[in-house]
Amino acid sequence: MDWAQGLWLLALTALFILLIRWLFGRQGGLPPGPAPLPLLGNLLQLKSREIHKPLLELSKTYGPVYTLYIGPRPAVVLCGYQAVKEALVDQSEIFSGRAEVPIVDLTSAGYGIAFSNGERWKELRRFSLTTLRNFGVGKRSIEERIQEEVHHLVEFFKEMRGSLFNPAFFIRRSVSNVICSVMFGKRFEYTDQKLQKLLDLMEENLRRVDNIWVQLYNFIPSILNLLPGPHNRLRENYQDQLRYVEEVVKKHEESLDPANPRDYIDAFLIKMQQEKKNPQTEYILPNLLSSALDIFFAGQESTSSTLSYGLLILMKYPHIKEKVQKEIEHVIGRSRRPCMEDRAKMPYTEAVLHEVMRFTDFLPIGAPRGTTEKTRFRGYTLPKGTFVITFLHSVLYDPSLFKNPYEFDPEHFLDENGSFKKNEGFMVFSAGKRICPGEGLARMELFIYLTTLLQTFDLRPVTAPEEIDLSPEYSGLGKKAPSFQLSLVTD
C-alpha cells in the first residue's frame, strides 16, 4: 500500500467515524443506552415480535429512562410507573405530541386525530369528544345501544349452543356495531361484506406495521418511495378504507338535514358547511375521513380483542368465572339485562375486568409520543420532537404496584375487605392529554358484554383448564388472544 492509498483509507475511516457520530451522536444530552450499529441502530436487539421483552432487558442495564436507536433515529424509552407518570401526567402538555413516523405518510398523512399534532389535533379531538357525547357516548342512550347489540349477539350464540366455534369474529362484528351506530348512524348484519372488508383491511394493516419493508420505510422513505414492495400495500389498504368512508359520506350528504344531525359524519359535514369560508379550517374532507377511521378503529379493535381474551382467561380459571357468575346472580339475577348501575355493586366483577385489561396488555409499548418543546427530564435534555416510547407494559406489569404481575390475579384490584380498589398502575388507556378518548365507552362495553354473556351462558373449553395456553398472538405492535374454540351452554 503506497502513501496515497493509505491517505485515502485514513480519510474514508475518518469520514465513516464522523458519519456515525452524526447519525448516532446523543445530541441534546439524551439518556445513555446500548451502543447502536451503523444505519441499523439497535434494531437487531429488538427483532423479537415480543418487543416488550428486549425493552425490559435493556432497562435492567440502563435504568428506567434510556435511549435506543430505531435505525438512525434516537428514541427515549420510559419504563415503569414512576417514569411514565412523570412524563404523561406531570408534564402532560410537553409529552402530548405524537411522534412523527414516516409510515404515517403511507396512510393518514397526518390527517385525523390519531397521528396529527398541534392545533389540528386539539381542534379535532375537542370536536370529536363533544360530538361523541352528544350522540350518547358515556350516557344512558349508548348504554341502551350496547344492551341491544349484546342481545343480538346472545340470540346468535343461542343458535350455536352445544357446538364448538371461535367467538372472536362474532364478538368483533358485534362490538363494531356499537361504534357504527354513533359514527355511521346504523348497525350492520354480521353477513355485511363491505363492513367485513373494512375490518379485514384494518386488521391486515395492523399486522403489516412490523413488516421489514415497512420498518425500512421509516429509515429511508425517499428511496423506498421509488421501489415496489409490501410497504406499498399499507398505502393501498388505507386508500381502500378511505373509499369505504367516502361512500358513506356521500350518502350522508344526499340526505343531510343541518337541523337534525344523525351521527358523527352528519355533525362533521355541518361543521364543514359552517367553516367553508375559513381558509385555515380543519373541517375538511381528509380530516373527516381519517378521523372517522381513527375513531372506528379505536372503538372496536381493543375492546373486541380484550373481551375475547377475557373469555379464554375465564375458561382457564373456572373458579374465578364461577365467582363472577355468583355475583351476577346475586346482584342482577336472570330476569333483566345488566346495566351500568350494577357495576358499583359488583366489586369482584369490576376487579376481574380490570385484571383482564391489565393482563391482556393490548398495546405493550403504547403509541409513540413526541415532545412538543425542549424539556429537562430526570436530568437529561430532550429536544423538541424527541421520539418517546411510553412503555405501558412496564407499567401494567410493574412489580412495585402489582404483587404478582405475571399471574392473572383479581386481587390486584381488591382490598382486604373484598371492595374494589383503584391501582395507579392501571394505564391501559395511557394517560395525560393523549389518553384514549374511548375509555368510557370501552369500560361500558366490557362490563355489559361480559356480564350478559356470563348471565346467559356457561363457557366450556375444548381441553382441560390447566391445558389452556394463554400465550398471545402478536399483530404488528399489538397483542390479541390466541385462536381458540369454546361451546356455550345454558341451564
UniProtKB/TrEMBL annotation:
Keyword Endoplasmic reticulum appears in the UniProt entry: yes
Annotated transmembrane regions: 6-24
Pfam families in UniProt: p450
PANTHER family reported in the protein's UniProt record: CYTOCHROME P450 2G1-LIKE-RELATED, CYTOCHROME P450 508A4-RELATED
Domain of life of the native organism: Eukaryota
One GO MF term: iron ion binding
Species classification: Eukaryota, Metazoa, Chordata, Craniata, Vertebrata
Residues that hold heme according to the record: 436
Subcellular location: Endoplasmic reticulum membrane; Microsome membrane
Gene Ontology biological process terms, A to Z: epoxygenase P450 pathway; xenobiotic metabolic process
A single GO cellular-component term on record: endoplasmic reticulum membrane
Keywords: Endoplasmic reticulum, Heme, Iron, Membrane, Metal-binding, Microsome, Monooxygenase, Oxidoreductase, Transmembrane, Transmembrane helix
Record's protein name: Cytochrome P450
Family per similarity comment: Belongs to the cytochrome P450 family.
